[in-house]
Write a structure and sequence with these properties.
The complex is a heterodimer. In chain A, the strands form 3 sheets. In chain A, strands 2, 5, 6, 10, 11 and 12 form a 6-stranded mixed β-sheet that branches. Chain A has a 4-stranded antiparallel β-sheet with strand order 3-9-8-7, with no helix packed on it. In chain A, strands 1-4 form a two-stranded antiparallel ribbon. Chain A contains no helices and 12 strands. Chain A is 0% helix and 55% strand. The N and C termini of chain A lie far apart (41 Å). In chain A, strand 8 and strand 9 form a beta hairpin. Chain A has a single domain (3-110), classed as Immunoglobulin-like (Sandwich). Chain B is globular and about 40 Å long. Chain B has a single domain, classed as Immunoglobulins (Immunoglobulin-like), CATH 2.60.40.10. In chain B, the strands form 2 sheets. In chain B, strands 2, 4, 5, 6, 9, 10 and 11 form a 7-stranded mixed β-sheet that branches. Chain B has a 4-stranded antiparallel β-sheet with strand order 1-3-8-7, with no helix packed on it. Chain B is mostly beta strands. The chains are: A mainly beta, B mainly beta. Chain A binds chain B through residues 32, 34, 36, 41-46, 49, 51, 90, 94-104, and chain B through 4, 42-43, 45, 56, 91, 93, 97-100, 102-108.
């Protein structure tokens, strides 16, 4: 069985502050982990992915994520939040060619 | 700039009517996914195809839903008969189908069944 969990329904952060959106995973085999972002009335867009190698992955729009095997986590981070980062963020895990998405976390960046 | 396209973008219908949603994957992609998004359930995988063959449709209610790929440039999702609980946003995504690959999502079809 495989799953990803996003423990927070919503994250609020002030503009300019660092942000973290949390994700934990439970997958058998080597985990392939992804972050996607969804803006209102749009489809999901790819942000970044971890396949292997460096635990710190850099992606689009200044986002990065850290793969932590001991904590089975893959948290999304950004050093300085922008109001335009406000959106719905999905963590996803893929193992044995079947992808599972988390429930999503709404990020609200407050001006 | 290659994109996944979906039609219609919005559909309002009455209970019992047939609904067909269409998706054009990115040219060259060999895998197509259908998802349903609701507030309560989040994003659910309904079915996916590789090289036009259905690989997994375990997430799809079999009695009323059907998914096909008549050719490499068209995927369809049909609901017959539709019910109010089918109201959701339906997304199509395409990719190369490997576990390491990104999925590219279409803009979605917002379905409302009255």
């Amino acid at each position: 069985a495989q799953s990803v969990a996003q423990p927070e329904d919503q994250v609020n952060v002030a503009e300019g502050n660092p942000l973290t959106v949390k994700c934990t995973y439970s997958v058998s085999g080597n985990p392939y982990l992804f972050w996607y972002v969804q803006y209102p009335n749009r489809g999901l867009q790819f942000l970044l992915k971890y396949i292997t190698g460096d635990n710190l992955v850099k992606g689009s729009y200044g986002f990065e994520a850290e793969f932590n095997k001991s904590q089975t986590s893959f948290h999304l981070k950004k050093p300085s939040a922008l109001v335009s980062d406000s959106a719905l963020y999905f963590c996803a895990g893929d193992s044995y060619q079947k992808v599972t998405f988390g429930i999503g976390t709404k990020l609200q960046v407050i001006p | 700039d290659a994109r996944v396209t979906q039609t219609p973008r919005d559909k309002v219908t009455e209970m019992g009517q047939e609904v067909t949603m269409r998706c054009q994957p990115i040219l060259g992609h060999n895998t197509v996914f259908w998802y349903r998004q609701t507030m309560m359930q989040g994003l659910e995988l309904l079915a996916y195809f590789r090289n036009r063959a259905p690989l997994d449709d375990s997430g799809m209610p079999k009695d009323r839903f059907s998914a096909e790929m008549p050719d490499a440039t068209l995927a369809t999702l049909k609901i017959q008969p539709s019910e109010p609980r089918d109201s959701a946003v339906y997304f199509c995504a395409s990719g190369w189908g490997l576990s390491t690959d990104t999925q590219y999502f279409g803009p979605g079809t917002r379905l409302t069944v009255l």
